[in-house]
Amino acid sequence: MVSSNHEAMHRIFQHDLRLFSRLSGMLGLPLPPPVEVTVLPTDLTESAPVERRVDTLLRLDSADDGSLLLAIEAQGKKDAAKPASWAYYTAYLWTKYRLPTALLVVCQDRATAEWAGRAVCSGPPHMPTLTIQPVVVGPHNMPVITDPAEARADLALTTLSAITHAGDPDIDAILKALSTALQGVPEDIADPIIEFTAQGLGKHPAGELWRKLVAVDLSFYKSFISEEIRDEGRAEGRTQQGAKFVLAVLDARGIAVPGSVRERITTCDDLGLLDQWVRRAATVPTAEDIFTTEDE
């Protein structure tokens, strides 16, 4: 199943077609700036029944060095089958378009990035034949952007920085710089950045931090993801109030609440269940009894 963070890691290059050109200098790639960048179809299926799709495919046309194809793959974990797929993608594209073909792999953790950057040969050691070695983007070589002014100067690059550094200690500062940089930015520019960041961070703990920053720092935006974030925040607020009400009733009746019971109440996110506990808290002899089902 394709995850939302998988989509964000490569679609950010479709959103900002010049992002790779700016990134290539940071990666030490001597590529001239393209005159034009075109998003190409990603379906690499032949007449055979096996469907093959590269994540994102760009054609970069430059005035001096001609054209090249850039296949971009988002990779969340090590996968022994991937080098063969990548070799197929690049060979197929080279054959179809007759253009130099490069592969960029975007990773969110260092171990996967190190694995993805290895050279893998299709043949035996004495006859390597075809070697695949992607250029890899990940937390090991992406800049850590914590200055709001720097973030504002390149929102797409800062988004990619946040996505690739999702598990790093600096992620809080990166996200705060990005949320600050987005303040005052027109909504049509800010909305996709907000959404790419949320998708790219996914269920990672940093994703929750981003949702809170959006709810607080960017409360005036009305995009789908920002509205979803605020709806979640309102629901979370209601459950917190419900838990406080349960504890207040027990406290008013002078009933001791053990730590394990308190934790179960305060971590409950089911409003219906909290409502049942409130009603039971008014009559139960002990705090533990609020968890007793009504049928018992």
Condensed summary:
Helices cover 50% and strands 12% of the residues. It contains 12 helices and 7 strands.
Explained architecture:
The protein has 296 residues and is an alpha/beta fold. The protein has 3 domains: 4-137, no CATH class; 148-222, no CATH class; 234-291. Helices cover 50% and strands 12% of the residues. It has helices at residues 4-15, 19-26, 82-97, 110-116, 148-153, 155-164, 171-182, 187-201, 205-217, 224-252, 259-266, 271-281; strands spanning 36-39, 56-62, 66-75, 101-107, 120-121, 131-132, 135-137. Strands 1-2-3-4-7 form a 5-stranded mixed β-sheet. Helix 6 packs parallel to helix 8 (187-201). It is elongated. The two termini are 42 Å apart. The relative contact order is 0.09. The mean pLDDT is 85.
Blueprint (SSEs and pairs):
Layout: H1 4-15, H2 19-26, E1 36-39, E2 56-62, E3 66-75, H3 82-97, E4 101-107, H4 110-116, E5 120-121, E6 131-132, E7 135-137, H5 148-153, H6 155-164, H7 171-182, H8 187-201, H9 205-217, H10 224-252, H11 259-266, H12 271-281
Helix pairs in contact: 1-6, 1-8, 6-7, 6-8, 7-9, 8-9, 9-10, 10-12
